[in-house]
Amino acid sequence: MKDFRDFLGPGLESCKTLVGYKDVLAHLDGTEEDEIRLRYAEAIAAIFGARLAGIFTNRLPDIASYGSPPGAMASMELEQRLREDGEATHRRLADRFGQLSVANELRKIEETPAELRRAVTTEARCADLFVASCPRVAGLGKWAPLIEEVLFDGGHGLILLPEQFKSREAIDTVIIGWVNTREAARAIAEALPLLRLATSTRIVCVEEPAASPRRMMGPADIAAHLDRQGVRVSFNGAFSAQRDAATIILEEAHRFSADLIVTGGYGHSRLREWILGGVTRHLINQSDIPLLMAH
Q1: How many Cβ atoms from other residues are within 10 Å of residue 63's Cβ?
Q2: pLDDT tens digit string along 96-129?
Q3: Is 182 found in the same domain as 155?
Q4: For position 62, what pLDDT does the model report?
Q5: Is 210 contained in some domain?
Q6: Interatomic CA distance for residues 102 and 46, integer angstroms
Q7: Among 287, 278, 285, which Cα is nearest to 258's?
Q8: How far is CA 107 from CA 62, 64, 82, in A?
Q9: How many independent structural domains does the chain possess?
Q10: For every residue of 126-187, which 3-state class applies, written as one string?
Q11: Do residues 154 and 183 share a domain?
Q12: Which domain holds residue 282?
């Protein structure tokens, strides 16, 4: 049998360049949070030699939803103002992108809410990582449907930053919220480039109250898998899910001063309307630590 190198041929050496993120996408909306997202996304792009694309979303009213002629006229006037404001924001962002240290591109999408969600999700499928803000009810809640659709239908991982987050120098310590599910495994796969760079990765397993041995196989196995992937990992213990899983994960993240929490994004679809699960919603609303989620 031929040596495996014969099958890879000249592509063998180039395989090394595939490790890591090569396209990072940052959500921009014209608020002060743009700078926080940009700095975080730029740092990741610089580490991996990736291209950073900013996607500025300008949400327009849906004229069809205004039944009366006066309502439609008011909607058209509002749309014109939003487009003018969006153009001014786009120019300001273009100036900011001219100062970035990495290869970059700025895009603008102006659409009604439903079309905007579809367009951004399509963009996210062509990126390795999507950086956005936690869409909390008290802050950027209007973007919750967009973030949900990208999470559940975008095909890649999301990093969600707490509002007014102050970036740290490096992602040294990572907490993995492990449940024996497809979503958790997917989140780990999406986080691998960052996990390999971390100084310490700790697995926090949240068990179901009456989980069978077959169902609960996983923590030691996923730790061994990560070790083979070059991740410095330790198993931090199992906790009963009789307590709130999100609270357990956050407590452990604070205990070890984590820089990032990696966890599955849970939820379900009701007539194609994505609805976040309780653990995911709790983490998004309460975490003061960046979250890397995938579905």
Answers
A1: 15
A2: 999 999 999 999 999 999 999 999 999 999 999 9
A3: no
A4: 82
A5: yes
A6: 6
A7: 287
A8: 22, 26, 17
A9: 2
A10: CCCEEEEECCCCCCCHHHHHHHHHHHHHCCCEEEEECCCCCCCCCCCEEEEEECCCHHHHHH
A11: no
A12: 173-294
